[in-house]
Amino acid sequence: MTRLLSIPVFAAVVALGAQSAAFAQASCTDCGRVQSIRQVEEKGKTSGLGAVVGGVAGGVIGHQIGGGTGKTVATIAGAGGGAYVGNKVEQNRNTKSKWQVTLKMDTGNTRTFTYSNPPTVHEGERVKLVDGGKRLALLGN
């Protein structure tokens, strides 16, 4: 008879253990699972210096072409084209890579954080937010 009672008692202990483990996971408001990691390019800002330098260089090169009215048109076109190219070069030079990490929090909501360096965690891993999300700490799955 005591043997028959031990099976239900064992099942109850296992069920309580599973519930307490689920509660321990759910009670961590700063914990979640990595849903996605995306690398994004943040376009660089321009100061105008690239446009000025490009415009001057383009104007000088354009001035070397043609004669009379054609020389004036070539100078203006060269300055405009050079300004555009110079601005794009400056913008591309200042472009930065960022990483967006999306977490499915234990509380049920989804949060996204942006980092300037590649994260050390991978999709599917369980993490905890450290310093308000400035860093992610890997937890046991």
Describe this structure in words.
- This protein is α+β, with helices and mostly antiparallel strands.
- It folds into two domains: 61 residues, Beta Barrel (OB fold (Dihydrolipoamide Acetyltransferase, E2P)), CATH 2.40.50; 45 residues, no CATH class.
- It has three helices and five strands, in the order αβααββββ.
- It has a five-stranded antiparallel beta sheet with strand order 3-2-1-4-5, with no helix packed on it.
- Strand 4 and strand 5 form a beta hairpin.
- Helix 2 packs antiparallel against helix 3.
- The longest helix is centred in the N-terminal third of the chain and has 25 residues.
- The two termini are 40 Å apart.
- The relative contact order is 0.19.
Largest sheet: 5 strands, antiparallel
CATH topology of the largest domain: OB fold (Dihydrolipoamide Acetyltransferase, E2P)
Strand order of the largest sheet: 3-2-1-4-5
User: What is the structural class?
Assistant: alpha+beta
| Count of domain modules | 2
The arrangement of helices and strands along the chain is HEHHEEEE
Record the SSE blueprint.
Elements: H1 2-26, E1 31-42, H2 49-63, H3 69-93, E2 96-105, E3 110-115, E4 126-130, E5 135-138
Antiparallel strand pairs: 1-2, 1-4, 2-3, 4-5
Helix pairs in contact: 2-3
In brief:
With 141 residues, the protein is of the alpha+beta class. Helix content is 46%, strand content 26%. A five-stranded antiparallel sheet has the order 3-2-1-4-5, with no helix packed on it.
